[in-house]
């Protein structure tokens, strides 16, 4: 995270393009996600760099009967973002490339909700300039299906 990231009212527009992938064979599964963020130039002639985010990995369903399911997944996550621009000049302190790896638990509840919780340990973190980067990444997600 950097001070440039904490800006309100920049006037830029972000377009998100992405896809998800899920496959299963018996108790084994694989999921993957990729997202690319395209950013436009905002007020004050500032352009946030485009951002690529991705994750994926294999998992195993430990319990898959009844109303509850439980799975564990080995997840690798990554991000790549270039340098922002102010006018026609690139900044020298906003780029980052990071890759994290760690376990994620997935709990399904009556086929209407899913909770994911995990931790990622850094494999590589390269950033430009002075930025605060996490030693670990904690993930928590809740999905609810309305019927």
Topology:
Blueprint: E1 14-25, E2 28-39, E3 46-47, E4 51-65, E5 68-81, E6 85-86, E7 89-90, E8 96-109, E9 113-127, E10 137-144
Antiparallel strand pairs: 1-2, 2-4, 3-6, 4-5, 5-8, 6-7, 8-9, 9-10
Explain what you see.
With 147 residues, the protein is an all-beta fold. The protein has one domain: Porin (Beta Barrel), CATH 2.40.160. Helix content is 0%, strand content 65%. The chain has no helices and 10 strands. The strands form 2 sheets. Strands 1-2-4-5-8-9-10 form a 7-stranded antiparallel sheet, with no helix packed on it. It has a 3-stranded antiparallel sheet with strand order 3-6-7, with no helix packed on it. A hairpin with a 3-residue loop joins strand 8 and strand 9 (113-127). The mean pLDDT is 88.
List keywords for this structure.
147 residues, mainly beta, Porin, 7-stranded antiparallel beta sheet, 3-stranded antiparallel beta sheet, 65% strand
Rg over C-alpha atoms, rounded to the nearest angstrom: 18 Å
Instruction: Name the average pLDDT.
Output: 88
Helical content stands at under 10%
The name of the CATH topology is Porin
Which regions are unreliable across 5 or more consecutive residues at pLDDT < 50?
Answer: none
- Enumerate how many helices there are, as a single number: 0
């Amino acid at each position: 995270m950097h001070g440039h990231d904490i800006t309100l009212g920049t006037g830029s527009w972000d377009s998100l393009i992405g896809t998800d992938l899920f496959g299963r064979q018996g108790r084994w599964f694989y999921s993957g996600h990729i997202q690319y963020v395209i950013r436009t130039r905002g007020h004050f002639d500032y352009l946030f760099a485009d951002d690529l985010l991705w994750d994926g990995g294999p998992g195993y369903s430990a319990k898959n009967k009844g109303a509850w399911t439980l799975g564990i997944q080995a997840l690798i996550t990554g991000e790549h973002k270039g340098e922002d621009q102010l006018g026609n000049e690139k900044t020298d302190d906003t780029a980052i490339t990071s890759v994290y790896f760690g376990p994620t638990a997935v709990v399904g509840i009556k086929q209407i909700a899913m909770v994911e919780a995990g931790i990622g340990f850094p494999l590589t973190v390269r950033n430009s300039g002075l930025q605060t980067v996490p030693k670990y990444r904690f993930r928590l997600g809740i999905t609810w299906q309305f019927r």
